[in-house]
From TrEMBL:
Gene from which the chain derives: Acsm3_3
Keyword terms: ATP-binding, Fatty acid metabolism, Ligase, Lipid metabolism, Nucleotide-binding
Protein name as catalogued: medium-chain acyl-CoA ligase
Any one of the GO BP annotations: fatty acid biosynthetic process
Molecular function per GO: ATP binding; fatty-acyl-CoA synthase activity; medium-chain fatty acid-CoA ligase activity
PANTHER family tied to this protein: ACYL-COENZYME A SYNTHETASE, ACYL-COENZYME A SYNTHETASE ACSM5, MITOCHONDRIAL
Species of the source: Erpornis zantholeuca
């Protein structure tokens, strides 16, 4: 028999939940995520994206997707305050922000001051008005 391929990505949560992607799956998912960024979010090569996420599988997926699409991925820790996020949005001229459903309220508090932001992408199972959901779009 054939030996199973080594995973390209293997993530384990604190609760023991595992996500394993082969190189083929990571390639396919990252192409789909790049299409989400370009089509649903309206981003182009050279545009900037801020990701305020904990280290969930989507963090790595979006990182690879941005490389594929030529989009600048700017990671931010989930410990950033609203003031920190606001500064990063203004200084970077980011056109998209990506965050989790638990961090979205803090992000929403500073969005009225951001004129360049085109889209808001939510990672998680929840939904919010005015936000695109990555899982649904994939």
């Amino acid at each position: 028999g054939r030996k199973p391929a080594n995973p390209a990505f293997w993530w384990v949560s604190d609760e023991g939940e595992e996500v394993k992607w082969s190189f083929e799956e990571l390639g396919s998912l990252s192409r789909k995520a790049a299409n989400v960024l370009c089509e649903a979010c309206g981003l182009q090569r050279g545009d900037r994206v801020i990701a305020v996420l904990p280290r969930v599988p989507e963090w790595w997926l979006l990182n690879v997707a941005c490389m594929r699409a030529g989009i600048v991925f700017m990671p931010g820790t989930s410990q950033l305050t609203a003031k920190d996020i606001s500064y990063r949005l203004q200084a970077s001229k980011a056109k998209c922000i990506i965050t989790s459903d638990t961090l979205a309220p803090a992000v929403e508090s500073i969005l009225p001051g951001s004129q360049l932001l085109k889209s808001k992408l939510l990672v998680g199972r929840g939904s919010r008005d005015g936000w695109l959901n990555l899982k649904e779009l994939l």
